[in-house]
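Example 3.2
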Amino acid sequence: MRVHNFSAGPAQLPLPVLEQAAAELPEWRSGMSVLEASHRGPDFMACAADAEATMRRLAGVPAHYRVLFLQGGATGQFAAIPMNLTARADTVAFIRTGQWSRKAAVEAARMGVEVRLVADEAASSYTTTPEPGSFTVPAGAKYLYYCANETIGGVTMPYVPAAEAAGVPLVADFSSMYLSRPLEVESFGVVFGGAQKNLGPAGLTVVIVREDLLGRARPDVPLVWDWQAMADNDSMLNTPPTFSIYLFGLVLHWIEDTGGLAAMGERNDAQAQRLYDAIDASGFYANPVEKRSRSAMNIPFTLADPALDAEFLAGASAAGLMNLKGHRSVGGMRASLYNAMTDEGVTALIDYMTEFERTRA
């Protein structure tokens, strides 16, 4: 029996995608599995081209942006971004709203750049986001970086800081909300993220980069991290994660078939609101994030008595509600409601929470 998987990633995949992949796995094209197909062969090259074309349609990626299929996760791009956009001792600007933007800033500093924190929400224990216009990007900064959705803390930037970044390339980590709603690509210089939340299995990192930002890599950057080199080779400078790209393409077609990004965003918001409403109406559960900055993807919550956490999780698992334990750094619970989460899964979680509160409060 399939369970409801609330994991922050690798995350639940759409059942129709899993069923199609299962049916095609032994014999995909040319009498072989996609797992066996050469990345240089015409079948897989057509598969990769279709995945890129579908990504461009869904997200409205303009012709003067390149779509790169890379490896190393978002963490790899924490280093690749400064290596491709800066020289040593350059200044970069960061908005810090949680642990992933903190990790990216630390990695950028390791690459020899000066990191300026133009906004840091530490005072709220990273349960808030900066108000628009409350920070200034220093003159000469090579880019402004932010994490659109902090997976661990359940915090989303409620706006795109394009005005604050005027004249400076805006770089955004979209890992945990990639294609969960419409995306205005032209507001950004670089958008990147791992696929394992909303777009497929682990192993694939998708980078969208404006063409004028290519060709700036430091001379000592390894070619697999050089965006220009990867773009020149259609992301096949080395063997790409073929199965991940194949599944990524299936997920993109599933998103198209279910109404596209506008419909996906409406469904995601409606599901998240149902869970937030249940938490807010309770005297037993609480969400620590200010309402304007609440994530629709990752919803952390605590129980009134932390001593009940283990019992709550055990009962949830027995009810088929899996991976609700919060990140080890913050504790509590966390329900991740990515694109493939169903209304039935959200209903089952709310019903379980209601009954647990009734019998334990």
